[in-house]
């Protein structure tokens, strides 16, 4: 199924550097495939270090004028960009489904969610205030200002091709920073469409640049440049670690949104129907390919059987297929490697005694059937590694202490979820979970107005909310004497 756009100019096959649409210096390109069909839907430039260096120089050149533009003016430009995204929501959603595979309804939701970061930070940018501290010395004043960090680099993943970009570029531009973005090689079209709308919204030349191509070459150029003062990255913990190391020689500021291993705990006092609804959304959204997706479902002994049965019934209602088809809730995984990883984790669990209750098969292409595995133990790879696929492993626990112990026994600390009614338990468990975000009686936590981020090896910093803009600001202290 080919996708069609109302505004054909949103499909760009060129990079956006210094306000111009350019090819790679050597003309090489990279194919973009539809994960549902395997068909090539576009080709984008296969750029490397030299094109990236030009983008960094452009962002550096643009920084002076942009940071001195009034916050109100920057806000207006971001607001226009937000409005353009919403005006083109359907086209942007179609591009997104075509290159990423998620159902069109989810893609529309992602575009609205992505746009909301531009709107939110257009507003927050106007509230970057300073402070005056009473001085202990006569005839002096202590003034504190907050200033843009400078040129920022962003590296984003394929699972949210639009939202992972706006929640970085929104606060960066609102704060007065400029940016060079490298989107994931699987999903560059959404990034380029956003750049086309940024240009239309009046984002000045060089303020926002998009370079597609070789991750190692582009990443190397971004991280080694002394001009780039900050790297903001969303992706795997493994690559996050590597990039952090690469940023060490130039002591860059870092925001890292890395992997997760989200527990979803169902206590014996939970509303089971609500817990099933929450589990479905937090596990199977985007076919399980989000960093806050439930990775392990821990169910208390007394309700284990009842919960498993209800969940199986709900999973039977999920419909797998091409994301463009009406009624489809489960698209393909991003590529063959993703399918192979899920198969491997399920096979390992089964070999160690887990039972497939629902699904457990890969019907071909990039699809994996929505699945439930019972009798999973905390030692199995399925419970320790990020699955990034539509498989729900069910584990058992006896009491609150055991649930907390299993939940926290991971190097990750991004999102956790639990269902309980007892108010004492709700407070106790909330405070004992070593996670940056906790969903309590809800499977939905992401919104531009709340601080998103993890602890432990899930990352550094927060995105969204009023905290999100702090990541793009430096504090400057002015000691004013002779007054
Ligand atoms: P995933 O496993 O979800 O693809 P990755 O961490 O591999 O997550 O990818 C997230 C982003 O990091 C993508 O934009 C990818 O191109 C980029 N990336 C991967 N490897 C490197 C690297 N060595 N240097 C810079 N960027 C990289």
Automatic annotation (TrEMBL):
Task: One Pfam family, please name it.
Answer: Aldedh
What EC class is this?
oxidoreductase
Q: Name one GO molecular function term.
A: oxidoreductase activity
Q: Where is the Aldehyde dehydrogenase domain?
A: 21-477
Q: Where is the active site?
A: 257
Instruction: Please verify whether the record's keywords include Oxidoreductase.
Output: yes
Could you tell me the keywords of this UniProt record? Oxidoreductase
EC assignment: the record states 1.2.1.-
- In terms of superkingdom, the source organism counts as Bacteria
Keyword Repressor found = no
InterPro entries tied to this protein: Ald_DH/histidinol_DH, Ald_DH_C, Ald_DH_CS_CYS, Ald_DH_CS_GLU, Ald_DH_N, Aldehyde_DH_dom, Aldehyde_DH_Superfamily, Succ_semiAld_DH
Family per similarity comment = Belongs to the aldehyde dehydrogenase family.
| Protein's UniProt name | NAD-dependent succinate-semialdehyde dehydrogenase
| Source organism (scientific name) | Xanthobacter oligotrophicus
């Amino acid at each position: 199924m080919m996708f069609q756009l109302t505004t054909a100019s949103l499909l760009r096959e060129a990079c956006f550097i210094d306000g111009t649409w350019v090819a790679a210096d050597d003309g090489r390109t990279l194919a973009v495939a539809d994960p549902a069909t395997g068909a090539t839907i576009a080709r984008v430039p296969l750029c490397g270090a030299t094109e990236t260096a030009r983008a960094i120089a452009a962002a550096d050149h643009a920084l002076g004028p942009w940071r001195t533009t009034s916050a109100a003016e920057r806000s207006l430009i971001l607001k226009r960009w937000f409005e353009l995204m919403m005006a083109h929501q359907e086209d942007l959603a179609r591009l997104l489904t075509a290159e990423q595979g998620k159902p069109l309804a989810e893609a529309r939701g992602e575009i609205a969610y992505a746009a909301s970061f531009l709107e939110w930070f257009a507003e927050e940018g106007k509230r970057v205030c300073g402070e005056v501290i009473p001085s202990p010395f006569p005839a002096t004043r202590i003034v504190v200002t907050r200033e843009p960090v400078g040129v920022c680099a962003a590296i984003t993943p394929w699972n949210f091709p639009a939202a992972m970009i706006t929640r970085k570029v929104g606060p960066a531009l609102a704060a007065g920073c400029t940016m060079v973005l490298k989107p994931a090689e699987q999903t560059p079209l959404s990034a380029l469409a956003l750049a086309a709308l940024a240009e239309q919204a009046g984002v000045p030349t060089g303020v926002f640049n998009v370079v597609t191509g070789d991750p190692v070459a582009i990443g190397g150029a971004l991280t080694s440049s002394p001009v780039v003062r900050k790297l903001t990255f969303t992706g795997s913990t493994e690559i996050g670690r590597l990039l952090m190391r690469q940023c060490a020689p130039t002591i860059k500021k870092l925001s890292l949104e890395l992997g997760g291993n989200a527990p979803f705990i169902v206590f014996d006092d939970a509303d089971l129907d609500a817990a099933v609804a929450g589990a479905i959304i937090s596990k199977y959204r985007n076919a399980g390919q989000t960093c806050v997706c439930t990775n392990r479902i821990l169910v208390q002994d007394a309700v284990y059987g009842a919960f498993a049965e209800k969940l199986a019934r709900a999973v039977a209602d999920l419909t797998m297929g091409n994301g463009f088809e009406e009624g489809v809730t489960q698209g393909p995984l991003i590529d063959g490697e993703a399918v192979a990883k899920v198969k491997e984790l399920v096979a390992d669990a089964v070999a160690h005694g887990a039972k497939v209750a629902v699904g457990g098969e890969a019907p071909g292409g990039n699809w994996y059937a929505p699945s439930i595995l019972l009798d999973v133990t905390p030692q199995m790879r399925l419970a320790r590694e990020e699955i990034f696929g539509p498989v729900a492993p069910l584990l058992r626990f006896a009491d609150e202490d055991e649930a907390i112990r299993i939940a926290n026994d991971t190097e990750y600390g991004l999102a956790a979820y639990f269902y309980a009614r007892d108010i004492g338990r709700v407070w106790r468990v909330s405070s004992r979970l070593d996670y940056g975000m906790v969903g309590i009686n809800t499977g939905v936590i992401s919104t531009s107005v709340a601080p998103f981020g993890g602890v432990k090896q899930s990352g550094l910093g927060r995105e969204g909310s009023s905290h999100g803009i702090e990541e793009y600001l430096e504090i400057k202290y002015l000691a004013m004497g002779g007054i």
